[in-house]
Specification:
Layout (H helix, E strand, L loop, with lengths): L12 H17 L3 H31 L4 H29 L4 H8 L1 H13 L5 H19 L3 E3 L2 E3 L5 H4 L4 H17 L1 H21 L5 H8 L7 H30 L23 H15 L1 H12 L3 E4 L9 E5 L4 E8 L4 H18 L13 H14 L4 H5 L3 H31 L5 H15 L9 H7 L5 H5 L5 H19 L1 H13 L6 H7 L8 H20 L2
Parallel strand pairs: 3-5
Antiparallel strand pairs: 1-2, 4-5
Length: about 550
């Protein structure tokens, strides 16, 4: 069945509540663990159906933010999702209070109850209206950015459409493209500030309802972080400053030499004078190469990608009104994932495809997990699958880039490394924001610039007014829509680098560990999953230093010394 044929409906909230209340009463009166397990499994099916309809509504909106019906359906699920969460929470409380808890623990594992504990700490029915408000405000941001219409060289472009010009070989063209982006954000600066201010305030309110001093502990609970906290993350960020920031400077110094510039500005995005590597064909060409790649990688990836193509479970085309960025979603009742992206003719097309394919492949491999909470891991563990897939497919990059393959590999590795300080910067900034919920927009921007000096020193915005005054973070959707979801990418990146190292040493062993990691889904915590995959914790300073040294060696051998 193709995506266009998927059944969709609005759920009847009142009926849903009645059905769940019956299940909860039956659960409480059950006289055996077996009966309670049966009821939990029945509820899983109801949850899957509800989540599937919501995913379809969200996806259709992302595919066309100007479609009135899609807007309406997405708004409906945004409005009722907090109420669904409240109903879910009632069932969660019943499970937690079960007189057969030991038997349930044996059946579903300790991680199931760790997740339950975090949910109970992070939710109260009093939050429902605030959650609705937060969803509504987040959509304002998404709609604002998706609605960008920028005139350039006779074309009407959205923000994603500017990307090819931002990587043009002509420096003036790149500067013009960045100027247009800067102008768009400058034009909407007041609106962007207002939206974010409202989000910070409503999140702080949520934290206060739960008797937290600020949103940070609630943010960590929402991210289901069970085996580390803000202190560990703070120490981890210091490792990035110590080991990665100097290495990124080394790369940028080499780029200056290659490009023949005295100074690198924000719009100097090139790694090579003749331009960054591009895939040697458009969307259809890239999908065909991906089919070959996944056919050769493993039987599992072949079956998976054939299904994605045949069932039209990808939307990769950039077009007006389409939401920006890329993501993977899923339809649990149908046991199918979906890849969303905006191809623009740059090397990012290939990395976003392999990245989201990593998510989708994991979701497909773990689709039979007995508990819905186990279908996907926590966010930082999720990103291991995606970022590792980018590296596990290196042997096939020649299909996309032909004679420019070596250039792509260097840019990909160097860019992945350079991302770590930026990811740490975003995280540090968010901690400051929620520690200081009363800060003004101006103070937030000043703080961003101060932190930028730590994580990305020597960053030069030239005369781009919006960016040089501390507004760069406002184009990062995660900061608005998913607070604290960014350090996750960096934690996963350190894990992915380990898979990259292992692929050079023993490809079969590395792939087998990756595959088994995908299959267990979210049935363990982040650090337990890392251990299960035979890789080491990114919080271990020795691991961090070792990974940095090996990447430095590869980069030096391949280009830095030339």
């Amino acid at each position: 069945m193709k995506y266009s044929q998927y059944p969709y409906k609005r759920i009847d909230l009142k009926q849903f509540q009645k059905d769940v209340e019956v299940m909860i009463n039956d659960f409480k009166s059950a006289q055996s663990a077996e009966k309670q397990i049966q009821i939990i499994q029945s509820y899983q099916k109801v949850q899957k159906e509800t989540q599937t309809y919501r995913s379809i509504a969200n996806l259709n909106f992302a595919r066309n933010t100007k479609d009135s019906k899609a807007v309406e359906e997405n708004k409906f699920y945004d409005e009722i999702s907090p109420e669904i969460a409240a109903i879910d929470n009632q069932f969660t409380q019943a499970i937690n209070a079960s007189k057969f808890k030991d038997a349930l623990l044996k059946k579903f594992g300790k991680h199931f109850f760790n997740l339950i504990e975090m949910e109970l700490k992070s939710f109260d029915p009093k939050l429902v209206e605030l959650m609705k408000k937060e969803n509504e405000i987040s959509n304002e941001y998404r709609t604002l950015l998706a609605g960008a219409e920028i005139e350039y060289k006779g074309n009407k472009l959205n923000l994603a459409g500017l990307s090819p010009y931002m990587q043009d070989t002509n420096r003036e063209t790149r500067k013009e493209a960045y100027q247009l982006m800067d102008n768009f954000f400058l034009q909407h600066e007041e609106k962007l500030d207002t939206i974010f201010d409202k989000l910070v305030k409503v999140r702080h309110q949520k934290a206060q309802v739960l008797n937290f001093d600020n949103f940070i502990p609630l943010g960590y609970l929402n991210m289901n972080r069970s085996d580390y906290g803000a202190q560990e993350v703070s120490e981890y960020r210091k490792q990035i400053v110590t080991h990665i920031v100097p290495l990124v400077k080394k790369i940028n110094d080499k780029r200056k030499e290659i490009l023949g510039y005295d100074e690198l500005f924000i719009y100097d995005t090139l790694y090579f004078k003749e331009g960054n590597p591009k895939p040697k064909g458009g969307l259809e060409f890239q999908v065909e190469q991906a089919k070959t790649m996944y056919t050769e990688l493993s039987k599992e990836t072949k079956d998976f990608f054939d299904m994605m193509v045949n069932e039209e479970l990808m939307d990769l085309e950039n077009r007006a009104g389409k939401s920006g960025g890329g993501f993977c979603t899923s339809f649990p009742s149908l046991e199918r994932p979906y890849i969303f992206a905006n191809f623009n003719g740059t090397d990012h097309d290939v990395t976003v495809l392999t990245h989201e394919a990593g998510h989708a492949f994991q979701g497909y491999q773990s689709r039979k997990q007995p508990i819905n909470r186990y279908l996907w891991p926590t966010y930082e563990a999720c990103e291991i699958h995606s970022m590792s897939m980018e590296f596990l497919t290196w042997d096939w990059m020649h299909l996309f880039f032909k004679e420019d393959t070596d250039k792509f590999l260097f840019k990909h590795l160097a860019g992945s490394l350079a991302f770590l300080p930026y990811g740490a910067l975003v995280d540090h900034f968010q901690h400051w924001v929620y520690e200081n919920p009363q800060a003004t927009p101006k103070e937030r921007k000043q703080q961003w610039l101060e932190l930028e000096n730590i994580y990305q020193p020597n960053k030069n915005y030239d005369n781009l007014d919006f960016l040089k005054n501390g507004g760069f973070w406002q184009k990062q959707a995660h900061i608005y829509e998913m607070p604290f979801y960014y350090i996750d990418y960096t934690l996963a990146q350190i894990c992915a680098f380990q898979f990259w190292i292992r692929m050079q040493e023993d490809k079969e062993s590395a792939w087998n560990d990756y595959l088994k990691l995908c299959k267990v889904g979210g049935s363990m915590s982040f650090l337990d999953l890392v251990k299960y995959a035979n890789i080491k914790s990114p919080f271990d300073p020795k691991v961090f230093e070792d990974v940095a040294n090996k990447i430095n060696h590869w980069l030096t051998e391949n280009i830095l010394q030339n």
